[in-house]
Automatic annotation (TrEMBL):
Its EC number is 2.7.4.6. The gene is ndk. The active site is at H117. It is found in: Cytoplasm. ATP binds at K11, F59, R87, T93, R104, N114. SUPFAM superfamilies: Nucleoside diphosphate kinase, NDK. Major role in the synthesis of nucleoside triphosphates other than ATP. The ATP gamma phosphate is transferred to the NDP beta phosphate via a ping-pong mechanism, using a phosphorylated active-site intermediate. This is Nucleoside diphosphate kinase. Homotetramer. Its main location: cytoplasm. Keywords: ATP-binding, Cytoplasm, Kinase, Magnesium, Metal-binding, Nucleotide metabolism, Nucleotide-binding, Phosphoprotein, Transferase. InterPro entries: NDK-like_dom, NDK-like_dom_sf, Nucleoside_diP_kinase. Its cofactor is Mg(2+). It catalyses: a 2'-deoxyribonucleoside 5'-diphosphate + ATP = a 2'-deoxyribonucleoside 5'-triphosphate + ADP; a ribonucleoside 5'-diphosphate + ATP = a ribonucleoside 5'-triphosphate + ADP.
């Protein structure tokens, strides 16, 4: 069995609404170990770089505004099959399509303001984790 890592952000809407504790309760109950975690805020340059893959999409400007408007919780999580299992735990991008019990079903307001980020591959998990954390912040 492999032990993998994924990267998550509790987005500004989730932090504003006071859902940090409830969301981490679900993350812990689902068997993820916290490797790194902090409350931080992305600058416009940070958000543009983090979401550069979406730069041609019509929602890019709105996404950058949203992700920089307040603090986020950034974290690296470890578990077997972490990337896929975390995507299952958070649910579909649009909360209207997210399965019952998923974090987005419970806490997301819309396809844009969807409470939580989860990496989509092992490669991106490593890139995104290194974007937010120095090696000495990972345990
Ligand atoms: P994901 O977060 O489920 O991987 P992506 O397609 O990678 O979804 O999109 C990144 C983020 O961009 C989403 O989580 C959401 O915040 C935002 N987003 C995606 N699609 C839309 C849209 O159609 N309108 C507004 N925002 C969107
Ligand atoms: Mg994505």
């Amino acid at each position: 069995m492999r032990t993998d890592r994924t990267f998550t952000m509790l987005k500004p809407d989730a932090v504003e609404k006071g859902h940090i504790g409830a969301i981490f309760e679900k993350i812990n109950a689902s068997g993820f170990r916290i490797v790194a975690m902090k409350l931080t805020q992305m600058t416009t340059a940070d958000a543009k770089e983090f979401y550069a893959v979406h730069s041609e999409r019509p929602f890019y400007g709105e996404l950058v505004e949203y992700m920089t408007r307040g603090p986020i919780v950034a974290a690296i999580l470890e578990k077997e099959n972490a990337v896929e299992d975390f995507r299952t735990l958070i649910g579909a991008t649009n909360p209207a399509d997210a399965a019952d019990g998923t974090i987005r079903k419970l806490y997301a307001a819309s396809i844009g303001e969807n409470a939580v980020h989860g990496s989509d591959s092992d490669e991106n998990a490593a890139i995104e984790g290194a974007f937010h954390f120095a090696g000495r912040e990972m345990f």
